[in-house]
Design goal:
With 243 residues, this protein is an alpha+beta fold.
């Protein structure tokens, strides 16, 4: 008989690239990240259900009676994929805040965020370099993304953004990706590189920086789609007024 106060949630993750660091089949730091995010509300089941990488039992009776706090936890549970996939990034940046490098970590770490698409981290004690190979399917999206990324990098050089992580765009892979599998470097909109220093991850800045880096690809995709939509709207309007 099913218990209405208990919910089971299973998650399948994209296939990890060779440069990824896994622990018990999950990204580095994922288990600790889940425990930190959900506390006693969530129990990790081992082994996970067939065809899944993670299965969690959610005890609804452990949720706070305060509606606002309860909604915060439920929103975090709905974002479990980001919590798991972003765990290595948060771990490396937390070490950066203390100017150290996480133990047993390679010089190049891959984080998968979509099937067959990864971004890469180069952890050092004084900085973490983050590189995104940018790939799009549609030929128009490729042109729009390339233009947007070049303007994005140029805009970040203004005085108002001097305290933000430095940002670069290149049509070819940066030196940090030397030796990476050629398939992972198949980027038709170039490569974006951020350099994160300890001052960018101090205190409360850590979570904001992690979220910004995790969602960068989605941020670019959103702007590309919006630009494409406006372009088509303008084209339709011109055809309407000047058939």
């Amino acid at each position: 008989m099913r218990n209405p106060k208990v919910m089971v949630l299973s998650v399948a993750l994209p296939l990890a690239p060779p440069e990824a660091i896994l622990h018990d089949g999950l990204p580095l730091g994922a288990i600790d990240a889940i425990k930190a995010a959900y506390g006693a509300v969530v129990q990790i089941l081992d082994p996970p259900k067939d065809c899944f990488d993670l299965t969690m039992k959610i005890n609804l009776t452990k949720l706070s009676t305060d509606e606002e706090q309860r909604n915060v936890v439920l929103t975090q549970i709905a974002s479990v994929r980001e919590v798991v996939l972003g765990a290595p990034l948060k771990l490396l940046l937390r070490h950066l805040a203390s100017k150290t490098v996480a133990p047993n970590v390679d010089k190049l770490v891959a984080l998968v965020h979509r099937p067959n698409e990864s971004f890469f981290l180069v952890p050092q004690a004084d900085k973490v370099t983050v590189v995104y190979p940018m790939r799009f399917q549609d030929s128009i999206d490729i042109v729009l993304a390339t233009s947007f990324l070049q303007e994005f990098v140029e805009a970040r050089r203004t005085a108002a953004l001097n305290n933000a992580p430095s940002c670069m765009w290149s049509p070819v892979p940066p030196l940090e990706l030397k030796g990476v599998n050629a398939d992972a470097l198949d980027a038709n909109a170039g490569f974006v590189t951020f350099v994160v220093f300890p001052r960018h991850v101090e205190g409360r800045k850590l979570d904001k920086t992690v979220w910004s880096l995790l969602t960068f690809r989605a941020y670019v995709s959103y702007h590309v789609k919006v630009t494409s939509l406006f372009s088509w709207s303008g084209f339709i309007f011109i055809k309407f007024v000047d058939p």
